[in-house]
Each structure stands twice: as C-alpha cells, then as structure tokens.
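Researcher: Re-running this chain for the archive, since the previous output was lost when a drive failed. Same request as before.
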Amino acid sequence: QVDVVAMVQLFGYVDVTDTGFIMAVLSIAFNPLFWNVVARWEHKTRALSQVFGSPHAACYCLGTAILALNCVRSHCFTEAMKSQPKLEGWDYHWTYYSGLAISAVGTLFVISSFLALGFTGTFLGDYFGILMEEKVTSFPFSVLDNPMYWGSTAIYLGWSLMHASPAGLLLTAVVAISYTIAVLYEG
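Model: Regenerated structure tokens:
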C-alpha cells in the first residue's frame, strides 16, 4: 500500500518543470531506448558490423557510445539534484551512510555483472552474433535477474539519499521504470 500523502509531500519539493530535471528524465528514458533500437537494428541488418568491418569492432563502438550516454545521464541526474531543494529531515549522517551502503551494493552488482559478462556480453554482443559459451549463472546472476540494471538503480537511489534529494528519488523511480520497460522489451 502506497502512502499517497507522503508522496504528495515529497513531490512538493520537486520542480518537474525545471530544465535540468526535464533533461535528466529525457536522458534516463533515452538510453535504454537507444541501445535496444540500435541493437535490434544491427541484429536485423548487420549494418554496423559492415561499417566497422567486424561484429566485435561494431559492438565495441556501441558499448563506447552507451558508456558515453551513461556519463551524460549521470551528469544530468546530478545537476538536476543540485538544482532542487534538499529534504531537510533527511540531511543527516544516517541517511548519508545508508545511501552510501546502497550505492556500494549497487556498484558491486554492476562491476560483478561486467566481470561475469565481459565487454561484449555487457554491451549487447549477442545482437552482433557474439555469443557466450553458456548462460552466466554465477554471482550476481545467481542472486538477482538483471543485476546491472538493478545495481545501477541502487546507485542512483543511494546517490539520492546521500544528497537528501527528493528530485533524485523521483529520478530514481524514472530509472527503475525505464529499466523495467527495457527488461520487458528485451525479454
């Protein structure tokens, strides 16, 4: 059961018309849309593989573009948080350290996912015809489905708590919704 009163109070701290906030929402929504559209286009046409001369080179190029877009997204997220008011009742050490712990767990999931999958496994190599020997079932995949997505979401949640940012919490919800849609689309 969702406490609507608490949510309304929380949203009272967020200016959703702020340009920085809008840019953050757009960058959050754009990223999974971009990589899914490009990967499916590559799978159907092999156009990137032809342009770059090999599936590996094309996959590395897409992966680099995704990393750059993720940097833009994180920058927009941070700037949107900084331009909005803090929630004074959360600006305490316990909130900061709780956020730090959540971010650390998220980072563990993201890094361990990358190490388990490798670059081409992480950045949609299967759409380029670069297949893994077998499905990865070791940690963190043994604990959680889509650990990179949920680890990334946890990082943003932790970052929001560390900054006592209602705008960050709302943007984290946008991240979670975007990844949920991506998982449904990818599945």
